[in-house]
Model the fold of this input.
Amino acid sequence: MTWLANLAIGYILGSIPSGLVVGYFWLHRDIRESGSGATGATNVLRTAGRLPAVLVMVADILKGVMPAVLGRLVFKDDTAAVLGAGAAIAGHVWPVFAGFRGGRGVATAFGGILGLAPLVALVFPLVGLALVVPTRYVSLMSVVGTPVSAIIVAVTAALGWEPWSFAAFALFAVLVIEYRHIPNIRRLLAGTEPKFGHGGDRVATG
Done:
């Protein structure tokens, strides 16, 4: 019952369409009609600006953090924590409150690891910066950085620092994120992927 409860909590939290809400508040329209068509912070940045993108990123990270922390600290069960965090990713990508059309799951996956293994998660932004700063491809950070981060989690599990269930969560995150980035991978290979700060269709505000 603990596993099922946190699974449901994680999915419901993940399904809260933060990008959609912020998009309607800032642009008075569906953010999915712009740019990549996703509800994540990257598309919000391209179409609405920095402040709304930061708000969405924080909200999406928290969606992963909360069920992970709930499982670990309240239910005292690592498996419940992993299930809740995984469900949050699924909810973010396929949100029941937004017609099952959500984001790509990167920020929520990071939030899940942050809630499960905070010290390990601190390494991930460094991995992301190492990829996005020289290339300016946010999608490359997601496509390459996510598996690299999962390998780091697996190494900590092999060393006995973290349970193997956390590595299973990281593998699940990789599978979902890579699947959701298939169009981005194709554009990266074709050289047509927009770089950081480009590719949206921001509405003029003045």
Summary: The chain is about 70% helix and 0% strand. Residues 2-190 form one domain.
